[in-house]
Amino acid sequence: MSRFSRLGNDLYSGTRSFDIVGRRKVWYLLSAVLIAVSLVGLFGRGLNFGIEFSGGSELRVSGVSSQQMEGYEQTAEEALEEVDPGGTTTITRIGDDTVRVQTGELGNTEAESARTDLAEAFGVETAAVTSSFVGPSWGETVTQQAIIALAVFLALVTLVLTFYFHTWKMAVAALVALVHDVLFTVGIYALLGIEVSPASVIGFLTILGYSIYDTIVVFDKVRENTDHAFDTKRQTYGEAANQAVNQTLVRSINTSVVALLPVAVILVMGVTLIGPGTLVDLSWALFIGIAVGTFSSIFIATPLLVQLRQGELMVRRHDAQVTRRRERRDERSTPHADDELLDTTDEESDDAELVGAGTGSQGGASRAPGTTRGDQAPGRQLHPYAQRGPRNQPKRKRRGR
User: Fold this and answer.
1) Domain boundary among 134, 152, 182
2) C-alpha to C-alpha distance for 36 and 24, rounded to whole angstroms
3) Residues 99, 276 contacting (CB under 8 angstroms)
4) What is the per-residue pLDDT across 141-182, written as a single tens digit (0 to 9) for each?
5) Separation CA 135–CA 220 (nearest Å)
6) Whether residue 313 has pLDDT greater than 70
7) Which of 279, 314, 349 is the endpoint of a domain?
8) Which of 61, 313, 319, 336 has the most crowded Cβ, counting Cβ within 10 A?
9) How confident is the model at residue 401 (pLDDT cuts 50, 70, 90)?
């Protein structure tokens, strides 16, 4: 932990630095691979929608003994062979003594027959087997509301980021990271065959908030560093943004680890002991979304922002000034004792280069700061104090009357 803390201090102070922005093509390639895997899951296997979205009947057998629990899937399939000959049932274990069976829509007579068959197969009373029907309209309503909420969320995020950071390009970079996170999470759901339930949809919307929060923290540091770079002319825009990512790197990792630990505990306990349910569905979405959200905030959002802004005239002019100042420093053989004086001299020379063309076209001669054209008339030698203004000229002694 001490080494990790020392690494964080070194990254924040600039003693050590990872070239995250400069290697953005590597992160883009890695992200493209992740998205390709997600698309394979989405268009290849497709999403495994729960009964709330597809509709159907659900039967739960409670009080199953440990002996009957062995081979419970085969037992349930044989019991429902007459009711569901196509074998479209989904059988899962919930806890230690409960079996959940989801199948297509069953009528009242078929549902009662299925309850009786399951009770006989698992050696329990008929009252221990419950039956319920869920229509697909409920899942469609949830999906429509989720899409509306997503659209409103993205619109508000775009407006807030644009006004807060005074540039729409930060909003675009943040939205790309958001889409990246949601697409990857949904693709992993499809690839692993995880059931999509209303709790999963809630998890998808939740990871949007976490991802945008982490991205805004990084962007706020980027804005602070780049504003300072514009004032001092010591770093290019990309270097200042890369320093901001390094300064927030350890913080983002620590925040993600702290958020992932309880989610991982709930997920492991749910899969091994509790069984399928709302907690497991929500934990899957949060665990995948938080992990990929941390990646996108660091390796996608900021490098994309730098790439978007590098074409701006202000950024290109700033980077050119920084490059010229560094070249002049390298050409000097003798180091200056005062770096601040060097920076001031370089900045004045940069400003002179920017306005020098206009001055030379008017045929104006160069003059010392604080003087006027009349002060430098040909053949007139000025007192050194006269260059600072007429009020600072030495007083003449009056002769006695």
Assistant:
1) 134
2) 18
3) no
4) 777 887 888 888 888 888 988 888 888 898 899 999 988 988
5) 46
6) yes
7) 314
8) 61
9) very low
